[in-house]
Amino acid sequence: MSDGVIIENQEHDDLWDKLNEECGVFGVYNHPDAPQITYYGIHALQHRGQESAGICASDGERFTNHRGMGLVTEAFNNNELSKIHGRIAIGHVRYTTAGESKIENAQPLIFKYSKGNLALAHNGNLVNADQIRHQLERQGSIFQTTSDTEVVAHLIARSGYDIEQAVRESLRMIKGAYALVMMTENKLIAALDPNGLRPLSIGTIGDGYVVASETCAFEAVGATYLREVEPGEMIIIDEEGLRSERFTGQTQRAICSFEYIYFARPDSDIDGINVHLARKKLGRKLQEEAPVAADVVTGVPDSSISAAIGYAEAAGIPYELGLVKNRYVGRTFIQPTQEMRARGVRMKLSAVRKVVEGKRVVMIDDSIVRGTTSGRIVSMLREAGATEVHVRISSPPVKNPCFYGIDTSSREELIAARKSLEEIRETIGADSLYFLSPEGLVDAIGRPDIGPNRGHCLACFNGCYPTEIYEDTKNCTDK
Q1: pLDDT of res. 4
Q2: Taking all residues of the chain, what is their mean pLDDT, rounded to a whole number?
Q3: How far is CA 447 from the centre of its chain?
Q4: Which of 92, 329, 396, 436 is most buried, judged by most C-beta within 10 A?
Q5: Is 468 helix (H, G, I), strand (E, B) or coil?
């Protein structure tokens, strides 16, 4: 059966079958409490990365910084923040997309070179980082990390230009997804790749400025939203104020669709579109495409709740909290056997028996990646007494790997790349299964961009990548 058709009527295990967030960046210029503001900013972006966190600040003459593994509160669990001083600061929360998970790769990365000090924080993934790295190593560069972000620092350091021109030239050499925030002793610089694959916004705070991966961070620090950073744009903030310039004229918006579907916080706005409201529209469109007779609608917490509410409203079926998430399960819970892995999912999620017992349940989720968790949740609902479980997914099937900062490196990992819709339904044990169509996704989010994808990157759904990747992938930069 093709996608977009309702099908009526477990393999290898992972504890939690979700795409992992990329990273989050934050920067502030001209604020007396810049390090503290940055701490709260990256704390608001914690959902984008939980492996490491770091802050670097400048007092105009020197850098002070701290990086640590774990959550923001774990990385700064003693007096580290009180040792960081300055009116300029940048921060980062990291999920590994390129490079190992170790303290050396925690960001911001900090370098001393002939022009002074430089600190960088990066959200995304550079698809030509290996090629540039090998070229630089042949020319004598010595790398201290395995992070693709260090490539940018070496390109800047090897340039004979001033910092602004060096950054400009370096950005023209790298390819892929990047929302970059960097600082010298007296400048804050932000840049977004020519496709705008990752979100990046500018705000004001007092007499200063902030930049952040998501606008929810502005709310956390009391900043006022100003505007989005545009694809191919470089922002320079210094004592002369804020300046903008384009480092390339070849731009084409292709923001990652999963920012709207799953990654971003519901209270964030991306290009003026609120994420919660966009997800509700995804749920409404899903119900329009795949109605089903049922008694109750529930969403897999947390990112699917908005879509579930939208589906329920459109269907006229009650939305209920049929699944509850335990927020206190450790991130490093180890599952040495299949039985313990299954138990691990129950530690993270449980069904509310009194809500689903004797009911026909519509279970809304934002995606199915490997299929393992979906099957366990369906089983959990049945064990709690659900008479039918109809699964509705508020995104198209993920059939292709992402090279831009999401942890799907091969098609073999993806159940939709290996199995038909009916086979997926059988695998997860649902009575019916439906994925939102790509057209429905684009229409529901309602971006104003022109073109067939309306400013979205849909590569993980249709294999059409907005940048050069490898020879065996389709390059859709001409669309």
Answers
A1: 45
A2: 89
A3: 18
A4: 92
A5: coil
Whether residue 243 is predicted with pLDDT greater than 90 in this model: the reply is yes
Looking at the structure, tell me whether residues 72 and 216 fall in a common domain. Answer: yes
> Alpha helix locations (H) across 45-175?
72-75, 129-138, 149-158, 163-171
Q: Catalytic: 23?
A: yes
**Pair 103, 52: CB distance under 8 Å:** yes
Of 23, 216, 256, 402, the active-site residue reads 23
Asked if 281 and 155 sit in the same domain, the reply is no
Indicate the residue among 222, 256, 290 that finishes a domain. 256
Q: Angle formed by the axes of helices 372-383 and 338-348, to 10°?
A: 70
Residue 332 has pLDDT above 70, yes or no: no
Taking the whole predicted model, whether its pTM rises above 0.70 is answered as yes
Place of tokens 């630089």: 136
CA–centroid distance for 374 within its chain:
21
Question: How many other CB atoms are there within 10 angstroms of residue 249's CB atom?
Answer: 7
What is the Cα–Cα distance from 81 to 384, expressed in whole angstroms?
47
Between CA 149 and CA 170 the distance in angstroms is 12
DSSP 47: G
**Please, what is the angle between helix 421-428 and helix 372-383, to 10°?**
50
Same domain membership, residue 336 and residue 209: no
Q: Please report, as a single letter, which amino acid is at residue 161.
A: Y
pLDDT given for residue 468 in this prediction? 86
| CATH code of residue 312 | 3.40.50.2020
Given phi > 0 = left and psi -120 to 50 = alpha, else beta, which region is 72? alpha
**Range(s) of the domain holding residue 305:** 276-448
